[in-house]
């Protein structure tokens, strides 16, 4: 099996891209150690690849509609910005988060369909994962099934496109680093004590690897 991981955020910060790339490498090594994983950087290197050669694309910056049209058998995973890109490309709408930027580990409530999809969370009815975003899906694209509340996770009716607003690949350590080093969106008005409290909150256990293991199972369906 081959997986291709694209940068899951359109950040223009090269250090951020490097950190997230490493997070994907470590995550796939954990959940699919035999997989061949290639990375392409359309932001800095402007490098795209032939999606027909892969079983899965984890995307953010991509000519998504071209990939869907040309390689309908290649499954696509959208994460964070990729989640929003999928929705917008296929007829949905994206807008600012009404309550302001989100930088936190979130408990995401599942729908009935989501409980069947994410079997590990069927009893609790939710999954927990880091989120860092200032925009969100305001209106889903037609033909997608809600797996979680508040437009947080979808799978299309053809079962070939799956997307999360959350970051299942991001560890607690990286989440804390991202929050501390941010000086604009998430902590610009925070005091040192407030930062300390928020960083501690980012140390909660998450279901990131369980989510990605479910992605690998979905890939084989």
Automatic annotation (TrEMBL):
PANTHER family: GLUTAMINE AMIDOTRANSFERASE YLR126C-RELATED. This is Glutamine amidotransferase domain-containing protein. One of its GO terms (cellular component) is cytosol. InterPro entries: ChyE-like, Class_I_gatase-like, GATASE. It comes from Penicillium egyptiacum. Residues 72-182 form the Glutamine amidotransferase domain. Pfam families: GATase (PF00117).
């Amino acid at each position: 099996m081959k997986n291709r991981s694209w940068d899951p955020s359109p950040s223009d910060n090269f250090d951020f891209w490097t950190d997230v790339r490493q997070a994907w490498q470590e995550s796939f090594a954990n959940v699919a150690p035999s997989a061949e994983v290639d990375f392409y950087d359309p932001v800095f290197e402007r490098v795209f690849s032939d999606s027909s050669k892969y079983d899965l694309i984890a995307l953010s910056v991509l000519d998504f509609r071209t990939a869907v049209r040309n390689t309908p058998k290649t499954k696509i995973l959208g994460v964070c910005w990729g989640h929003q890109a999928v929705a917008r490309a296929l007829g949905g709408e994206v807008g600012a988060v009404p309550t302001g930027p989100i930088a936190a580990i979130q408990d995401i409530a599942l729908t009935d369909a989501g409980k069947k999809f994410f079997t590990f969370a069927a009893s609790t009815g939710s999954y927990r994962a880091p989120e860092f975003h200032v925009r969100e899906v305001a209106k889903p694209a037609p033909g997608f099934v809600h797996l979680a509340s508040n437009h947080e996770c979808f799978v299309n009716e053809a079962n070939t496109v799956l997307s999360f607003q959350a970051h299942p690949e991001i560890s607690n350590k990286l989440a804390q680093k991202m929050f501390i080093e941010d000086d604009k969106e998430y902590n610009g008005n925070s005091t040192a004590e407030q930062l300390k409290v928020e960083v501690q909150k980012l140390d909660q256990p998450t279901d990131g690897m369980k989510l990605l293991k479910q992605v690998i199972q979905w890939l084989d369906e």
